Amino acid sequence: MAAQRKTSRYVVPIAVAGIAAATIGLVPALAASGDPDLPEITAQQLIEKIAASDTQTLSGTFKISTDLGLPAFDGLLGGLAGGGSGEGSADPSAQLTKLVSGTHTLKIAADGPERQKLTLLDGDERYSLIHNGDEVWAYDSASNQVFHEKGAEEAGRAPEKELPASPKALADEVLKAAGDTTSITVGGTANVAGRDAYRLVIAPKQQGSTVEAVTIAVDAATGTPLKFTLDSTSGGKPVVDAGFTKVDFARPAASEFDFAVPKGAEVTEGDQLEKDHAGKAPEDLEKALGDFGLGGAGQNGPEVVGEGWTAIATFDTGEAAPKTEDAPKEARGFLDALGDEVSGKFGSGTVFKTKIVNALMTDDGKVYVGAVTPQALVDAANAAQ
Prior knowledge:
Blueprint: H1 2-23, H2 43-52, E1 57-66, H3 74-81, H4 92-95, E2 102-111, E3 115-122, E4 125-132, E5 135-140, E6 145-150, H5 152-155, H6 167-178, E7 182-192, E8 195-204, E9 211-219, E10 225-232, E11 240-248, E12 266-269, H7 270-277, H8 281-291, E13 303-305, E14 312-316, H9 329-338, E15 339-344, E16 347-352, E17 358-362, E18 366-370, H10 374-383
Parallel strand pairs: 6-12
Antiparallel strand pairs: 1-2, 1-11, 2-3, 3-4, 4-5, 5-6, 7-8, 8-9, 9-10, 10-11, 13-14, 14-18, 15-16, 16-17, 17-18
Helix pairs in contact: 2-6
């Protein structure tokens, strides 16, 4: 079980990256001639097309741009995720945190569930992550560091789920689940990476959500999602804007997934990395968060208030929330940039804001979190009195 947890830390990002390459990317390559003229299609038919898609092989280039409305925190997240490995490490859990902010160009190749490769291109630097059978390799050109993990194939295998028997049944389930809280429509067409696509638009019907809409560009020929955009009600740049600039559905050459350790590179085995970090990063992070009243849900688990897009998770930490100045030094400026003081029937507290997820921590230790506006959090806190 421990081995499964260990290896899945590195396989899951590769699997996610592989899926992301088939579902998101950024900055669409729009045709100069405008949106393509495609046969009309309903939302249900488009969902069925996605469900029927069986894309197993692809290669391409995509860009991903993320704007959560947060201050710069690459170093902070890298340190937390990598247990202090941070820069100069080939550890995927440290390197892939770069994707949560800024704009990045990536190259991707996939040959079924057993072989994927992702290369992050930042200037002259390259970071490559390769899953080939039961092995994972990662290489950071800036530091000439290599990460290697064996036994990854079984650990990365997701548990089986019982799915609807047909694309139509799956589409029916999706539309049924959307219910009264979600609008699912076809919002015209687009040209992404030189391919004709339909735009599936998913939007909340409820007031108070921070999500304006999620738009997925779906390849008209294969049903493969090519582009993903998440827009916030706050306007401005999308929170996530990702889409292929080039894509090819042919099977990549087998040599694409080969890896040879570069001359002079230092190799870190996954087992050794696990030993180095054992008892450090998670405990240290938990202590830091706990010192600031963010370590858990106290004696009771979180409860959910509301439904759909405006659902709010709430829990009681069981103790008074400390002030920002009591936070660990490395997090203090970050929290200051996020927090706004608020008050109401519940008393007073601080709302920590992003463009999508907001959290209210009251001074008496209660926490309200959701993809909702700060006012919705305040209303929920007031209603709990």
